[in-house]
Amino acid sequence: MVGELRFDGKVVVVTGAGAGLGRNYALAFGERGAKVVVNDLGGDMKGEGKSSTSADKVVEEIRRKGGEAVANYDSVEYGDKVIQTALDNYGKVDIVINNAGILRDRSFARISDLDWDLIQRVHLRGSFLVTRAAWQHMKKNKYGRIIMITSASGLYGNFGQANYSAAKMGVVGLANTLSIEGMKYNIHCNTVAPVAESRMTKNIMPEDILSALKPEFVAPVILWLCHESCNDSGGVFEVGGGHVAKVRLMKTAGAIIRSKNQGSTPEMVRDNWEKACDFRDFNVPANIAESTDVACKAYFSVEEGRNSIKPNPTSATTP
Ligand code: NAI
Predict the structure, then answer these.
(1) Which end of the chain is less enclosed by CB atoms within 10 A, N or C?
(2) DSSP label at 124?
(3) Could you report the per-residue pLDDT of 166-191, keeping only the tens digit for each?
(4) Could you give the residue numbers annotated as active site?
(5) 235: CA distance to ligand 1 center in Å?
(6) What is the reported pLDDT for 1?
(7) Nearest 5°: CA angle at 75, between 70 and 81?
(8) What is the rounded average pLDDT of the residues 30-40?
(9) ipTM score
(10) Per-residue pLDDT tens over the stretch 97-146
C-alpha cells in the first residue's frame, strides 16, 4: 500500500480539541489538509469554568503550520452549535471526533447526583448531541466518519469511576447502532479507547509509564479510521504506546437449562453453571441476529430431543 493518507477537502470537528489527545487529533488532521473545527469549552478537568484560550491556541498552531481551522467554545451539551460552526465556516461536516471529556472520580457510595449527571451530560449526551447534529448532513452527503472515545474504564470497569465507566460504555452502545444505521449512507462509526499522557492521567499513573504513552501515538489510528479508504465500521480499538488492538464480545457456547415439556429451575442452572461459563468453547457473534438466534436454536433442540446446540456457522469460533 502506498500514498499518504490525506484529508484535503474534508471538514472535521474535534470536540475537546484545546488540550491533550483532542489537540493532537486536530493538529494531525490540519497537517493532512482537513479543515478543522477546534471545539473546546476550556474548563477544568471536573467540568467547571470556561475559557476560549485553549481552542484559540490550537487554531493558531494549525494555521501557523499552513492548515485551516476555526474555533468553537460551546460545550458539547450544545451539539448543534458545535456543528453549526462547521457549516457556517466550511459548508459541511465530514468527520466528527467525540473526544471532549471530564472526570469526577469518587467511590460509588460517594457519587453525587452532579458527579453522575455531569459525566453523562458531557461524555454520553454530548456525543449524542454533536453526532445527531452532524448526522443529517452526513446522510445528505452520503459520507461520514464518526469516532466515539471510550476508555478501558468503560470496557473493564475501574475503581472510583462508576459514573465515567457507565458513560464510556454508553458511547460503545451508541456506536454499535450508528454503525448499523449509517451503513447505507456511507457513514462509519468506530470507537477508540486511548491511553495517553494528559492532564486526566497525570495524577493517576506513574511518570515513567506516562512518558511512554505519548498522545501522538493515538492520533494515527483516529486518522486511519476516518479516512475514506478505511472500510471499518462498528469496531472498538484500544490504542496506546504505539500499539493498536481490536476488542469484541465473546460468548460461551453455553448450556441448555431445561428438558422437554419442563420449565427451567434454579437447580438446573446451578448444575449447568460451569458449562454455561466455560470459555473453552465459545463464539463471537457478529451481530444481534447471530447472538439471539442461539436462544431459538436451544429451544428447538430440546423439543427435538437433542440436548446440544451448534453455534451459528457464520459466527467466528476463533479469536
Ligand atoms: P484532557 O482533559 O487533556 O482533554 C479533554 C478536553 O475536553 C479539555 O481540553 C476540556 O477543556 C475539553 N472539554 C471538557 N468538557 C467539555 C465540554 N463539555 N465541551 C467541550 N469541551 C470540553 O483529557 P484527555 O486525556 O486528552 O481526554 C480526551 C478524551 O479521551 C476524553 O474523552 C477521555 O475520557 C478519553 N480518554 C483518555 C484517556 C487517557 O489516557 N488520556 C484514557 C481513556 C479515555
Answers:
(1) N
(2) I
(3) 999 999 999 999 999 999 999 999 99
(4) 164
(5) 21
(6) 63
(7) 60
(8) 98
(9) 0.99
(10) 999 999 999 999 999 999 999 999 999 999 999 999 999 999 999 999 99
Read off the C-alpha cell for 82.
458545535
The secondary element (H helix, E strand) that includes residue 238 is strand 236-240
Question: What sign for the dihedral angle of Cα 148, 149, 155, 158?
Answer: negative
Alpha helices in the chain (DSSP H): 20-31, 53-64, 79-90, 113-119, 126-141, 152-156, 162-182, 207-212, 219-226, 266-276, 288-303
Residue owning the nearest CA to atom 11 of ligand 1:
42
Our answer on whether the CB atom of 47 is closer than 6 Å to any ligand 1 atom is yes
Taking the C-alpha atoms of residue 46 and residue 8, their distance in angstroms, rounded to an integer, is 36
Looking at the DSSP assignment, which residues form a beta bridge with residue 283?
A: 251
Does the C-beta of 160 come closer than 6 Å to ligand 1? no
Which domains can be identified in the chain, with CATH numbers?
Answer: 11-247 (3.40.50.720), 251-303 (1.10.287.4290)
Say yes or no: CB of residue 226 within 6 Å of ligand 1. Answer: no
CA of 21 to the centre of ligand 1 (A): 7
Q: Determine whether 231 is exposed, middle or buried from the number of CB atoms within 10 Å of its CB (0-12, 13-18, 19+).
A: exposed
Exposure on the CB side of residue 289, measured as CA atoms within 13 A: 3
What is the value of pTM for the model shown? 0.96
Q: In which band, very low, low, confident or very high, does the pLDDT at 319 lie, cut at 50, 70 and 90?
A: very low
pLDDT at 208: 87
